[in-house]
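Database export, one record per block. Field names are fixed; values are copied verbatim from the stored entry.
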Amino acid sequence: MSNRRRTTAVLGLVLILVLGLGIWHREQFKPRQQPQQLLTAKNQFVQLPSFAAAASGANESNKPPQVIRIGIHISNIYNVELATQTFMSNGYFWLQWPETVQQWMDASEIEPRQLIDFPNNIVSYDFLYEPMLKAPRILVDGSREQAFRFSGHFWTEELDFHQFPFQTMEIPIRFEIAQEEFALNGPTPISLVADAEQSDPIGSLIDIPGLEFKGARLDPFLHRYSDDSSFATANNRKAFSQVRILTVFNTHPITAIGQWLIPILIVMLTVFVGPAVSARLSDARIAIPSAALLTLVVMQQSYEITIPQLSYLTFLDLVYLWCYTVTVALFILFVWSANQCASINAESPGYEQKLGAVTARINRIDRRFQATSLVATILFMAWAYLR
């Protein structure tokens, strides 16, 4: 079998292996019907169209709910951990409630601090939540007002890593009515309502290193608990009013390029320049893609520990996969060229002429590989970013 046929056979086997792995992966992770003995989550956060809809009970209340107004100020966000999707934050908020709610609270012996819960708080022992006034302030219209200070460790479900490291990071904190009797479909419904146009929900220390603060917004939500939760009675799901403040950050493009893409491009530069090495230096040529592959593997492993395990490929994952493909292709090319040079007997007549002809042919293929791989890399990275 000639070297060309042997190389074609090897490439065909590699292609079949890749296709086989792709089919296996698709079948392995295809959604399957859940066994009967497994439970599924039924608790839901449902975003409402407006705070007016929240104030009216969002079709959950049998009678018009009482309204508690909330104002929120986030002073700081820090210790953001992408791998665990957690962060720490502190700030304060204030509540205003009517006399009717105060009567309900007195009847159930509920303190103002017990009105609000933080559903996405994950660590209770270091959570600070305390009133800022000794007693609620009575306003002119007879309603009550109390301000609270909070600080704690939170979890975010809003992170999307598809474009990592060029991503928009959304960090939420949720405030929810805590008492069961104050559920929207309970006997004494209460709706939590914020001013969507609040002018100062974010403090001056909100900046996170490496991220650019874009803004914040307040959203109304419902939190529906499942039929068989501890809150459920008479097969009636409880629905609690909730307000979410969402702070939005973008990664700095220059920071993302310098931290994640420049090291990859430096490694790939050696791959693109590799074919310029003389075809007669087979050992040196083969060492180039080998070293590049090892470097890429180490770099990808160090990147993967900074983000959570995902069920999809990020932009950076696609870049690494493409770099592996180009580097492996270069390795196969160099192995083929080394075999071509080694197949010429040094003692045969016309050795130099034969070697020169083979070298010239290899150089032409090398130049084509350089141009093709460089253009294909640019196009692939553009596609991976814009997909």
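Remark 1: The two ends are 43 Å apart (CA to CA).
Remark 2: The chain has a mean pLDDT of 85.
End of record.
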